[in-house]
Amino acid sequence: MFSFLKKNRPKPIRIVGTDEQLFINDVAITFPTNYETLVAVFGEPSRTGKTKLSKSPVICWDAEGVYCSCGSYGHIFGFSLIFSKKHHLDLPPKNHFSGSIILDDKEILFDDFSISENPNYCINKLTYKDEEQPYALYISSNLEAKKEIPKDKYILQPITEEHIEFTDFGFKLAVIEELMYTQEVLHPKFELYEFIEWYTKRKIDIEEEGYEPIAEVTQFFKDLQIPKRMAPLLTEIYQDGGNDIYLNLIRFSSGSEDYWDIKSAVDAKNFPNLKKATLCYAEDSVYDEMIAMGIDAESL
Q: Hey, CA dihedral for 250, 254, 258, 262, is it positive or negative?
């Protein structure tokens, strides 16, 4: 009897888009989505890693031809269906997408497709730099869709309960990443493009200003108060250049900025359950301070 190795067969993928909703294998997808939802519809990924430049997380499904580069696993704005090798992606899938895409009851083909937009999602072709041939369909949130923003959404009022007093802004940002974007318990969840649309005191041009800290955005996070009752929820902090907090502070971040370096670990005393810290924006002394406090601190 002979035994032959078989290639992994792609999981059948059926994407259906209507005027109201996007479905993948009958699971409704709302953007931003998260790692767990994508695993539920595409299966366990073949590989995960980070992009070389920005160190953003990458999720790859080789057999299915699905690729995702995101700010964080908990806050994913889109994913790509790969149809060509005309790209320079980090960790690209080995196969092309072979599933079906049905929009308004009609199956679409990559060669004949241009763009599809509705308020809840957008499907567009991706072309790498000077290449003429698109390499993927990108399914994502529709950032251009106009949504009514509550007039008071980003107006911060002093909270009526005890809050944590921070001495180190970089440490506070790491805490916000965990509580606002990972656990989603700290509100309002800040979204840069929404904030820019909401802000009326001046016009913020993200294309011009998105390479440096925007004063009004930075001030929002400085003014944001975190209730003391949330302190026990923090068990770990994880700094990464692709974290949502940093991409909201500087939209076109290179991942190498030092604006938000942690200079002192003194604020860790406010978080009794903090046991692990993975850092990339911190001075060398911070690691020793955290270890002395019983926190497993290491460099990313």
A: positive
Q: What is the pTM of this model?
A: 0.60
Upper half-sphere CA count for residue 91 (Cβ side, 13 Å): 20
Q: Which DSSP string corresponds to 145-205?
A: S--PPPTTTT-PPPPSS-BPPPS-HHHHHHHHIIIIIIS--SSSPP-HHHHHHH--SS---
Domain shared by 94 and 194, yes or no = no
Name the residue among 266, 292, 267, 262 with its Cα closest to residue 278.
262
If one counts every other C-beta atom within 10 angstroms of the C-beta of residue 4, the result is 4
The number of folded domains in the chain is 2
Sheet bearing 276-279, strands edge to edge: 236-238, 276-279, 296-299
Task: Clarify whether residues 27 and 132 are in a common domain.
Answer: yes
Q: Evaluate if residue 192 carries a pLDDT over 50.
A: yes
CA atoms within 13 A on the CB side of 244: 24
pLDDT digits (tens, 9 = 90+) for 8-21: 789 999 999 998 89
Work out the average pLDDT over 256-284: 94
Q: In which domain, by residue range, is 292 found?
A: 169-299
Q: Does 123 share its domain with 209?
A: no
* Closest among 62, 33, 37 to 49, alpha carbons compared: 62
Rounded Cα–Cα distance for residues 91 and 122 (Å): 24
Q: Which helix (H) or strand (E) holds 106?
A: strand 106-107
Please say whether the beta carbons of 180 and 237 come within 8 A. Answer: no
Residue 126 and residue 175 in one domain: no
State how far the Cα of 215 lies from the Cα of 47, in Å rounded to an integer.
38
